């Protein structure tokens, strides 16, 4: 077989990427820093079925996306171009975006702290026996790690934050971690951005539950309601509050004047003689319980009769005096 030229490779790559853009509407843009070929192969195998991973130079990917857009007139995929920055790859999928992202996250490989590497996480050296002989204490002294000699070996006394996230790994830190056999970092494909039918959003959106969405919707409704009430602009959300407020205003006018309406009549009646409602309330509350209700009603009836007798006596004395 003859050697395939660069031009032929580009044509083949363009065809492959354009075909994927025709077949899929969902794409995950993933960072592939420090991901080896074997690890990538395992990820491909794990995603086989619903998803396809495509790596390549950013310039080639951008070129192919533009070609596809010109050929099909579909400009939605142009939203991918600004995302193709750094060492990234594309995961085309027809599966559930959250599940695919979780599957990708499973394939992580532990890695040593190499000199000059930017730490993706904080590195803490735990306390305990290191198994190193006392001649190795110079490493710990350089890094200000408190130690003691215990049974002929170096023991770390307290946990020490050796490297902070975002800092570069120094030669002393790398040498110490290697001696202790600590592989503090783990690498895999990291989903940076999600593309779904022209929309581009952060992968954190995939973690939102229905309860989160309902809570955000309710917060939005409350803000719209508050704004509508403040500027007296009717909306569906604010209408019930506006009607209640209008009813309160009308009721206040009815109470202060001779004007009345059916809903105001009962309020006026209560204001004229609150005792009617005070006596009726316990009887109504206890009406659902059989024997106890009957027992409760008896004292209520007695209470009604006693004032009547007293008033009759009073009335009698006042008539005959």
Describe what this molecule looks like in 3D:
This protein is α+β, with helices and mostly antiparallel strands and 321 residues long. The chain has four domains: 16-108 and 188-207, Alpha-Beta Plaits (2-Layer Sandwich); 113-185, Ribosomal protein L10, N-terminal fragment, domain II (Molybdopterin biosynthesis moea protein, domain 2, Alpha-Beta Complex), CATH 3.90.105; 211-272, no CATH class; 274-311. It has eleven helices and twelve strands. Helix 1 (6-23) crosses helix 3. The longest helix is centred in the last third of the chain and has 30 residues, at 291-320. The protein starts with 5 loop residues before the first helix and ends with a helix. Mean pLDDT is 81; it is low at 284-321.
Attribute tags:
single chain, 321 residues, alpha+beta, Alpha-Beta Plaits, Molybdopterin biosynthesis moea protein, domain 2, 4 domains, 5-stranded antiparallel β-sheet, 3-stranded antiparallel β-sheet, 11 helices, 51% helix, flat, disordered C terminus, ribosomal protein, ribonucleoprotein, large ribosomal subunit rRNA binding
Number of strands: 12
Number of helices: 11
Per CATH, what is the topology of the largest domain? Answer: Alpha-Beta Plaits
- What is the CATH architecture term of the largest domain? 2-Layer Sandwich
Radius of gyration over all CA atoms, rounded: 39 Å
Order of helices and strands: HEHEHEHEEEHEEEHEEEHHHHH
Low-confidence runs of at least 5 consecutive residues: 284-321
Total individual domains: 4
């Amino acid at each position: 077989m003859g050697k395939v030229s660069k031009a032929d490779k580009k044509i083949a790559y363009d065809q492959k990427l354009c075909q994927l853009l025709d077949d899929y509407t969902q794409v995950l843009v993933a960072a592939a820093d420090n991901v080896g070929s074997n690890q990538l192969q395992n990820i491909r195998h794990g995603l086989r079925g619903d998803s396809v991973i495509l790596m390549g130079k950013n310039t080639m990917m951008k070129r192919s996306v533009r070609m596809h857009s010109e050929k099909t007139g579909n400009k939605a995929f142009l939203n991918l171009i600004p995302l193709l920055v750094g060492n990234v790859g594309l995961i085309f999928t027809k599966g559930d975006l959250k599940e695919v992202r979780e599957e990708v996250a499973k394939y992580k490989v532990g890695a040593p702290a190499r000199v000059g590497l930017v730490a993706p996480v904080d590195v803490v050296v735990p306390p305990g026996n290191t198994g190193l002989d006392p001649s190795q204490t110079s490493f710990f002294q350089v890094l200000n790690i408190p130690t003691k000699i215990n049974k002929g070996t170096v023991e770390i006394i307290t946990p020490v934050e050796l490297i902070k996230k975002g800092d570069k790994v120094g030669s002393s830190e790398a040498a110490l971690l290697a001696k202790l056999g600590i592989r503090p970092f783990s690498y895999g494909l990291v989903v940076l951005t999600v593309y779904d039918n022209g929309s581009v959003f952060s992968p954190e959106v995939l973690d939102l539950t229905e309860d989160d969405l309902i809570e955000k919707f309710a917060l939005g409704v409350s803000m719209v309601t508050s704004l509508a009430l403040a500027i007296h602009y009717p909306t569906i959300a604010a209408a019930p509050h506006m009607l209640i407020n209008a009813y309160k205003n009308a009721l206040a006018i009815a109470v202060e004047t001779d004007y009345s309406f059916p809903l105001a009549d009962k309020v006026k009646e209560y204001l004229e003689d609150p005792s009617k409602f005070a006596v009726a309330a316990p009887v109504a509350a206890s009406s659902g319980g059989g024997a106890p209700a009957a027992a409760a009603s008896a004292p209520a009836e007695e209470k009604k009769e006693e004032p009547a007798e007293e008033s009759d006596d009073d009335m009698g004395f006042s008539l005959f005096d």
